[in-house]
Amino acid sequence: MIVTIDGPAGSGKSTAARKLAARLEIAYLDTGAMYRAIALAALRSGIDLSDSDALWGVAHEARLALDCGPTFTRVRLDGHDVSEAIRSMAVSNATSFVAGHPAIRRFLVDEQRRIGRELGSFVSEGRDQGSVVFPQADVKVVLEAALDRRAQRRFQELAADGEEVTLDEVAANLQKRDGADSKQWEPLLKLPGVTVIDTTHMTIADVVERLTQIIEASGQSGPDGIQSVSSV
After folding, report:
1. What global pTM score does this model have?
2. Fewer CB near the terminus (10 Å): N or C of the chain?
3. How many CA atoms lie within 13 Å of 4's alpha carbon, on the beta-carbon side?
């Protein structure tokens, strides 16, 4: 079973995907972590992020590995665990350069598909999972939320990690990313069989319960053939 969850940053898709994967007892694939890891590598190299050739060079040389468990995607870059380091505001600002690079996108899409073949059953979240990477997915969902709510969520996450950043800075970053990334998930909104969920006034528990209902309604099975995933 393949479940894709796409949408803008702060819509709750990462947390919801992790919790859903845990409930289903299948792997969780955080594709955004791959773009972030390359952004981190680029920042550490000191290159000009607008230099397309230099950015591709960093991506091509980076040794990127993902360990996709049911509750967490552990990321290793050049042999080092960067699962926490890639969540900084600096990396968030740099990630748009990576995501907007056509060759890097193709490279990472191929890698995501390779990982997907190895995993078999998984919940994948990102921007273009249901439209580009896994168009054959059994269940496709797009999560949305108002910008102010998404900014508040992201601000709280960064503050909890000790990042010194203002709510206005976070909102500006999300707005910028929306402009660059929205074309990735917007095609899904026009496709039949895609469920759109506005999480603005929903808790994560509410979102996971709604996702569970969608999967049950689709008739998909868990890894052991369990139809009623709510009992997993």
Report:
1. 0.85
2. C
3. 26
Task: Enumerate the domain spans of the chain.
Answer: 2-220
Q: Scanning the structure block, which residue is given the tokens 């940053």? A: 9
* Residue 174, token pair as written in the block: 């999300």
Residue 21 has pLDDT above 90, yes or no: yes
How many angstroms from the chain centroid is the CA of residue 225? Answer: 26
Structure tokens at 52: 């397309």
Query: H helices of the chain, where?
Result: 13-24, 32-45, 52-61, 89-99, 102-119, 147-160, 167-185, 204-218
Residue whose token pair is 């095609």: 187
Sorted by sequence, the CB contacts under 8 Å of residue 23 that are 6+ apart come out as 208, 212, 229, 230, 232
Residue-level pLDDT at 228: 33
- pLDDT tens digits for range 116-152: 999 999 999 988 899 899 999 999 999 999 999 999 9
Q: Which tokens belong to 150?
A: 């998404």
Q: Which residue has the tokens 């890698």?
A: 111
pLDDT of residue 180: 65
Q: 137 by DSSP, 3-state: which? A: coil
Tell me how far apart the alpha carbons of residues 11 and 101 are, in angstroms, rounded to a whole number: 24
Q: Is 228 exposed, middle or buried (0-12, 13-18, 19+ CB in 10 A)?
A: exposed
Q: With H, G, I as helix, E, B as strand and everything else as coil, classify residue 56.
A: helix
